[in-house]
Fold Bm13226.
Amino acid sequence: MTSNYSLDVLLKSFESAASSSLFNIESPKCCSHSPRTDSLLSKNKEKNF
């Protein structure tokens, strides 16, 4: 039962972190550790050039 609870807490914290990183996509220094945002930023750079 405790493992399920900790998993739920981990999921909730991960979801909140993911949503906040989506809002902070303008500043790459706060979400540069995320590979998903890194690929998104690189794709946007490719589009610009």
Q: What stands out?
A: The CA atoms of residues 5 and 11 lie 10 Å apart. DSSP finds two helices and no strands in the chain. Residues 20-49 form one domain.
